[in-house]
Amino acid sequence: MYFEPQPSDSLQAARPERRTSKVAIVGAGAVGATMAYAALMRGSARTVALYDINAAKVKAEVLDLAHGIQFMPMAEVIGSDDVEVCRDADIIMVTAGAKQKPGQTRIDLAAATIGLIKKILPQLQDVAPNAVYVMVTNPVDVVTYAALKVSGLPREQLFGSGTVLDSSRLRYVLARECSVAVQNVHAYMVGEHGDSEFPLWSSATIGGVPLLEWPGIDGLSPLSEARREQIADEVVSSAYRIIEGKGATNYAVGLAGSRIIEAVLNDEHRVLPVSTELRDYYGVSDVCLSVPSVVGRNGCTERLLVPMSDSEQRRLRDSAQSLRSVAQQFGF
Predict the structure, then answer these.
(1) Which of 59, 155, 193, 324 is catalytic?
(2) pLDDT of amino acid 16
(3) Architecture of domain 164-326
(4) Which pLDDT belongs to residue 330?
(5) What is the pLDDT of residues 74-106, one digit of tens each?
(6) 67 assigned to active site
(7) Cα separation values, 59 from 81, 137, 141, 258, 301, Å
(8) Where does the record place the modification Phosphotyrosine (predicted)?
(9) Which helix (H) or strand (E) holds 87?
(10) pLDDT at 243 over 70
């Protein structure tokens, strides 16, 4: 069942066929619907397709979005409870999964979400075999690893949204602490999208100045080691605080997802900390973790070997071991 305006036969015949960019978003929940809204508002794609097994929900979301098309860049939004709505998509963002409850870790979500991925991924591959696949649903690193094994797709074509959102959270806090524009802060959260993630302090900069050398006002740095630990804790725990207060995170992750969409569709070769299967990255292999990577039309084509201190390398290995043990519990 499709939910989209149907032009008359004569009008349809008069329109020339043309190839346009298409993003399909799987899941019309808080994250999926907000990501569709963000992609439409930013003009990320010419066609935004929502797919959800809840026909009433996806129909309502599509109508609500379509009623605001006048105020957005030129685009169309379609939706259905039939996977056919995703046919020939250039990029597929998978947001469907079990909802995270207050106090529940991302790892607790793994069993139900992996079961769902096993069911829907082959269907998506049938209608969009050449799409770039981005796993967004949590626990994203374990889900991404499972999706790679289930689909047989190359790691360039399927990856996870990783710590793109977490890095945005980190940059927001650092900008606030240092009284600078967030756009001038360059810093990454890496590792698991979850409790074992950590910031790369050794390579972070503000306006080209190494963050560890940032002078602050009157030469007094606001970023002591103790304060950096507090900032890292604030970033890691932020999702839990948002979920406790409003039930879900959706705005920032929607925007982060639209940024990944644009990097792919516009072939930007943008450096983003997405979650991909690592192969001998500082000695880490056979696990999906987030590190700064190059994202473009062919997916995630390169992982950058950014400088890491000994302690950061150790934390990356610890994060990898934590996720590897979880994946093994589910037979991967």
Answers:
(1) 193
(2) 46
(3) Alpha-Beta Complex (3.90)
(4) 73
(5) 999 999 999 999 999 999 999 998 766 666 665
(6) no
(7) 9, 21, 30, 21, 36
(8) 240
(9) none
(10) yes
For the entire predicted model, the pTM comes to: 0.90
Give the domain ranges of the chain. 18-160, 164-326
Mean residue pLDDT of the chain comes to 89
- Neighbouring residues of 186: CB distance < 8 A, sequence distance ≥ 6: 171, 204, 205, 206
Residue with tokens 């190494």: 210
Annotated binding site: 27-32, 52, 57, 97-98, 100, 106, 136-141, 161, 166-169, 171, 186, 249
The length of the chain is 332
- Which percentage of the chain shows pLDDT scores above 70? 88
Taking a C-beta distance cutoff of 8 angstroms, is the pair 246, 239 a contact?
no
- What is the token pair recorded at 30? 């808080």
Q: Is 135 helix (H, G, I), strand (E, B) or coil?
A: strand
Confidence of residue 15 (pLDDT cuts 50, 70, 90): very low
Residues at the annotated binding site for substrate? 100, 106, 138-141, 166-169, 249
Q: Lowest-confidence range among 18-22, 119-123, 285-289?
A: 18-22
Q: Where are the alpha helices (DSSP H) in 131-193?
A: 140-151, 164-178
Q: Which CATH number fits domain 18-160: 3.40.50.300, 1.10.10.10, 3.40.1710.10, 3.40.50.720?
A: 3.40.50.720
Q: What are the C-alpha distances in Å from 52 to residues 57, 85, 94, 290, 330?
A: 8, 10, 11, 28, 25
Q: Which residues are annotated as a binding site for NAD(+)?
A: 27-32, 52, 57, 97-98, 136-138, 161
Q: What are the tokens at 51?
A: 């797919």
Quickly state the pLDDT bin for 214 (edges 50, 70, 90): confident
